[in-house]
């Protein structure tokens, strides 16, 4: 098993499958009266979050606690970071406290890679700028496999704001490794021109959502990240929803078995309508549930729980 999880590219097919299989075993813990395993007792996991987060931070905290690890939640707000402390000095502080794993979310792309050079423990990338979010890709893959029974050969459309999406990048890398065919869909302004060659040569790009929908097994809608947009990437929210939003009529163009995904949080009414988000095809709530099991598996394998 690898020491750090910084990118979807860190995972080959065997390692990714091991994580998914372990997550399936961890999922059985959720059905127990006492949702605890002693696997990481005595280990310390630090959640180091420089950006606001609800799902990811709570998911990692729940995962670590279910494995009986000690958890320290560090938020940039109210810490020495607001006084100008550097990431390196914060890392050295965590190192001195004996952190076995650091789960980091940071607005700067590449920050987790730097952190991995400064601490002895494992580093897990929980989202760095517009770069990557590998555990989100793992939980998405787990959800697809649980719903559809396989990953190899699936046709997956990733739709929307690819330019600013770390989820999209990690999913392209992981799903391509696991044998799925990925098509990126969105307005030309929100799909980087070199993304196919830079990430995975086998992926396709389309600017026409309606033409793609009838042939996919999975449609993954991405949040439009307006907080990262300094310029106008499309005429209006209404125009974006008309061209690239997933509504009821578009959902009914999907094959009968196809599922709808969204990493959250959602802009309801923009990239996805309530009718679709709350439909039986939607896996959005399942993705949150599966996230805890997948992150349990990641922490367990990274910290050598199987050797304890």
From TrEMBL:
Reaction(s) catalysed (UniProt annotation): carbamoyl phosphate + L-aspartate = N-carbamoyl-L-aspartate + phosphate + H(+)
Subunit organization = Heterododecamer (2C3:3R2) of six catalytic PyrB chains organized as two trimers (C3), and six regulatory PyrI chains organized as three dimers (R2).
Q: Please give the InterPro entries that the UniProt record associates with this protein.
A: Asp/Orn_carbamoyltranf_P-bd, Asp/Orn_carbamoylTrfase, Asp/Orn_carbamoylTrfase_sf, Asp_carbamoyltransf, Asp_carbamoyltransf_Asp/Orn-bd
Q: Which domain of life is it from?
A: Bacteria
Stated family = Belongs to the aspartate/ornithine carbamoyltransferase superfamily. ATCase family.
What is the protein name given in its UniProt record? Answer: Aspartate carbamoyltransferase
Decide whether keyword Transferase is in the record.
yes
Cite the EC number.
2.1.3.2
Question: What does the function comment of this entry state?
Answer: Catalyzes the condensation of carbamoyl phosphate and aspartate to form carbamoyl aspartate and inorganic phosphate, the committed step in the de novo pyrimidine nucleotide biosynthesis pathway.
Which segments constitute the Aspartate/ornithine carbamoyltransferase carbamoyl-P binding domain? 3-145
GO CC annotation: cytosol
One BP annotation, GO: 'de novo' pyrimidine nucleobase biosynthetic process
Recorded metabolic or biological pathway in which this protein acts: Pyrimidine metabolism; UMP biosynthesis via de novo pathway; (S)-dihydroorotate from bicarbonate: step 2/3
Positions that bind L-aspartate? 83, 166, 223
Q: Which PANTHER family match?
A: ASPARTATE CARBAMOYLTRANSFERASE, ORNITHINE CARBAMOYLTRANSFERASE, MITOCHONDRIAL
Aspartate/ornithine carbamoyltransferase Asp/Orn-binding domain location = 153-302
Any idea which UniProt keywords this protein has?
Pyrimidine biosynthesis, Transferase
What does the record give under GO molecular function?
amino acid binding; aspartate carbamoyltransferase activity
UniProt: carbamoyl phosphate binding residues: 55-56, 105, 133, 136, 264-265
């Amino acid at each position: 098993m690898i020491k750090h999880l910084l990118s979807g590219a860190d995972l080959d097919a065997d390692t990714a499958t091991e994580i998914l299989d372990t997550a399936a075993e961890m999922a059985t813990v959720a059905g127990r009266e006492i949702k605890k395993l002693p696997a990481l007792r005595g280990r310390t996991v630090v959640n180091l979050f420089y950006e606001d987060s609800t799902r990811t931070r709570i998911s990692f905290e729940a995962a670590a606690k279910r494995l009986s690890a000690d958890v320290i939640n560090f938020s940039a707000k109210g810490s020495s970071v607001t006084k100008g402390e550097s990431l390196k000095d914060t890392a050295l502080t965590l190192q001195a406290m004996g952190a076995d794993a650091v789960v980091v979310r940071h607005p700067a792309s590449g920050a987790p890679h730097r952190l991995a050079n400064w601490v002895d423990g494992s580093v897990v990338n929980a989202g760095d700028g517009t770069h990557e979010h590998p555990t989100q890709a793992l939980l998405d893959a787990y959800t697809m496999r649980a719903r559809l029974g396989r990953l190899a050969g699936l046709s997956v459309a990733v739709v929307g704001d690819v330019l600013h999406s770390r989820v999209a990048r990690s999913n392209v890398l992981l799903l391509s490794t696991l044998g799925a065919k990925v098509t990126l869909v969105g307005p030309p302004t929100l799909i980087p021109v070199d993304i196919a060659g830079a990430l995975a040569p086998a992926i396709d790009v389309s600017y026409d959502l309606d033409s793609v929908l009838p042939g996919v097994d999975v449609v993954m809608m991405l949040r439009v990240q307006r907080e990262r947009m300094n310029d106008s990437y499309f005429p209006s929210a209404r125009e974006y929803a008309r061209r690239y939003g997933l509504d009821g009529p578009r959902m009914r163009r999907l094959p009968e078995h196809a599922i709808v995904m969204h990493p959250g949080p959602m802009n309801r009414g923009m990239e996805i309508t309530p009718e679709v988000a709350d439909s039986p095809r939607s896996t959005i709530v399942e993705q949150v549930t599966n996230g805890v099991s997948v992150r349990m598996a990641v922490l367990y394998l990274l910290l050598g729980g199987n050797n304890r």
